[in-house]
Amino acid sequence: MKYKNLREEELKNRVAQEFFSDFDCAGILKDVDFSVQIKSSGQISFLQYLLWAEAKKDVSDITIMLAQLVITIRKARTFNEILPPPFLGCFDCEKIAFVHYHEFLEIFHKNDFNWNVTPSNRETREFKIICDTLKEIIDNKNIFIFDFEKDEKELKKFIKENFVAGRTETSKFRIDENNFTHVYYKWLETVKPSIDVNWEIVKKHGIIDGDFYLADLLSRENKSLKEKLLVVLETNKYRMDRRINEMGLISSMEVNFCDNQKKHAQFWAIYERPPKEEYWDIIIDRHDLLVPQDIRERRGSFYTPKIWVEKSQEYIADVFGKDWQENYYIWDCAAGTGNLLAGLKNKYNIYASTIDKSDVDIMHERIDTMNENSIKGDGANLLHEHVFQFDFLNDDFEKLPRKLQEIIEKTPEKLIIYINPPYKEATNMKTIGGTGTHVSGIATENKTYIKYNNLLGKASNEVYAQFLIRIYKEIPHCKIANFAKLKPLCAPNFVKFRESFTAKLEKLFVCHSSTFDNVKGNFPIGFHVWDTDKKEEFKKIKSDIYGKNGNFIRKKRFFNYDNHKFINSWTKTFISKSKLEIGILNLRGNDFQHQNMIFIADSRKSSDALTHIDVNQNNLIPVCVYLAVRHCIEATWLNDRDQFLYPNKKWEKDKEFQNDCLTFTLFHDSNNISSKCGVNHWIPFFEEEVNACEKFESHFLLSFMNGKIIQNGYSNLLEQQEDKMCDKREFSPEAKAVFDAGRELWKYYHSKPKVNVNASFYDIREYFQGRSDKTGNMKSRSEDEKYTELLLNLREKMKILAKKIEPKIYEYEFLKE
Question: 498, 537 in Cβ contact below 8 A?
């Protein structure tokens, strides 16, 4: 055995040196163990990979290694960002195997599959399905396997003949069955905007942007080579919708470029076309892959993991009885490929509709292959006539099957709308932060939006809210069982929605968003069971919380905050002016998802145009209370939507709580005060305590803590109160421990030569951690072991202090418990 008893990293290095020395194997590609790419000549600005591989130090089964690699790549959607290689592979201490990338295309582009499983967990149903598929590939001899010792000569010959840069003499990328979808995504960004056509109109006639891409791809010298394409390229224009007219002549419509074909020429100067003719039919057959990801998302192609499908059906049974499948009709009006309906038994009571005809075709195919077990699914226990194309946000109910219309008209109380609708919205955090743009058309270009916009208010940006309001208004007395974000329950933007949607929430469970395919972010998703026949304004509910593997974690209450004032309204009560402004408190939002936008900075310039208030001696304590309250509880996926509230007045008499919050603010990473922006008034120590080599420019903070600063009251907005000396601060043992840990850190900093004597906590961290050359941001760690040790000690003491503050946050009603 050639590489026996080597660690995995040593094994990868030896394989790279002995077999791939002509290539670059040093790159780190997400969670892929081993990659091989063409060495850069200095003239090429893009990467070309030749192999992505899984590595194991011990003798391992090829099928298992490849299955782990496949799940790793698909889970991260690596192929969307990077041009895929010709080969995927795997190796251990004994052998190496290669498989052509195109063998995996059918697997990679499957949406109706749970790709959120842990790649290394061999016990999952998904892992076993992938293994079964891979065994078929191996059984068909579509794999190349070499023993490192016995086949060394053959392996080196294989690499020499097959690991060749996919470029011609003019440095163009070759396109084949492995990478044509990746090039398509690039084409969407570059060429599509330059084509002078109304995409919405042509789409209604069955032509999509992928048809234009095929016209480009299967062409030579800007002339399409395949006559049967829906769209063809003719030098400087496209022709589409070609047909024989009454005179027997070919008629068609022309589509021109809006930039004199400039972007088109620039793009195809990089890629070689056409591909080899042997790939043409393969590419045309996989035309279904040429659909943009945002279209898939908008249409509701979200895989609902099996654990939540089963769990949701348990909850429906808890509310509507164990015989609910016999006593109720079920309609999934956002069915996608129908996986939410898996496990249901009474197919005569089930209806499934989806916006996409191809999804209907898949469900019909699954019905026909009910008894098969393949990557396409385990079959579908449905009736052909009950599965149909229907655009729920646009189409009239008269387009529904007659039997379903009768149920809606005569016995809606016997109908359960069972759905996992799209979570796409027209705004995101980048939009809120000023770094992104609103997503047009996602939620606003449909009849439901137009009809119910006034009832939804800001919630109209959410597609699932539109589903709910149409169901509630147009199918009265029905039951609703739906997956959705928790915004309908507690988000301030959903106030108008809650006023209009008053169905009783019977039951709720909550799980993590990352367990759903195509859902980005780190937030809770709830399964809600509503009874529209019962009218009740939602106030609160105790929900079951489940982990990523379906394990019960605990219970948690979720609240409607419509009649509450929020914490940012409270900040207005301590706005104050002073001759000495020592910083700016930046504010944004009232919930945990905005936590990173809450910080103290030096000036309005640092606040990046966010909401802010000036900080001075008059309001320093409430500012510190605010920042500590917002940061001492960690933001998690579960508390993402919890709202911080206007507190009661008990905190004003709790001096220890105030001083704990002051301490927390001084030593927290959200304190971005820097002496580079002016005088640092936030130094918490005397010079002698930290062995400073010079006198500090400001002793403001020490004077404040020792009761030597005159301050005005802040309890009434902008009203000048009687001047008084501030109180001398007495600190709790937990706060003192933080000061002690901070003092050691300051001492260590001042032991260094030529340091900035007036450095703030931010400056000290920047000194030891440095900044990234690539991003300019402060690095997350330091190479100085002593500093790292001192910082870790400080943070441990801060955690203890945060735990002490936390119960007071609920006692003083900053948060509901």
Answer: yes
Tell me how far apart the alpha carbons of residues 525 and 545 are, in angstroms, rounded to a whole number: 10
The pLDDT tens digits for 436-479 are 333 444 556 799 999 999 999 999 989 999 999 999 999 999 99
Rounded distance between C-alpha atoms, residue 595 and residue 587, angstroms: 9
End-to-end CA separation in angstroms for the chain: 61
Distance between CA 394 and CA 287 in Å, rounded?
26
Using the 8-state DSSP alphabet, how is residue 228 labeled?
T
250 Cβ neighbours under 8 A, 6+ residues apart = 242, 243, 244
Structure tokens, 350: 């089930």
Count the Cβ atoms, other than its own, within 10 Å of residue 673. Answer: 25
Read off the pTM.
0.68
Cβ–Cβ under 8 Å, residues 209 and 199: yes
The DSSP line for 442-483 is TTTSSHHHHHHHHHHGGGGGBHHHHHHHHHHHHSTT-EEEEE
Backbone torsions φ then ψ of 455, nearest 5 degrees: -80, -25
Highest averaged pLDDT of the listed ranges 247-256, 356-365, 397-406, 602-611: 397-406
For 767-778, the DSSP string reads: HHH-B-TTT-SB
pLDDT digits (tens, 9 = 90+) for 637-675: 999 889 999 999 999 999 999 999 999 999 999 999 999
d(CA 114, CA 112): 7
CB 699 within 8 A of CB 759: no
Instruction: Give me 617's structure tokens.
Output: 């001696």
Per-residue exposure over 491-513, b if at least 16 CB sit within 10 Å of its own CB, e if not: bbbbebbbebbebebbbbbbbbb
DSSP string across 150-207 = TTHHHHHHHHHHH---SB-TT-PEE--TTTHHHHHHHHHHHTGGGB-S-HHHHHHTT-
Residue 176 and residue 275 in contact, taking contact as beta carbons nearer than 8 Å: yes
Distance CA 484, CA 465 (A): 9
Q: Specify the residue for token string 């010709």.
A: 86
Rounded Cα distance, 567 and 629, in Å: 10
Give the pLDDT of residue 302: 56
Spatial distance between the Cα atoms of 640 and 485, rounded to a whole number of angstroms: 11
CA atoms of 483 and 754, how far apart (whole Å) = 59
Length of the chain counted residue by residue: 817
Q: What is the pLDDT of residues 483-527, one digit of tens each?
A: 999 999 999 999 999 999 999 999 999 999 888 866 777 899 999
Q: Strand, helix or coil at 254?
A: strand
What six digits make up the tokens of 732? 């709790």
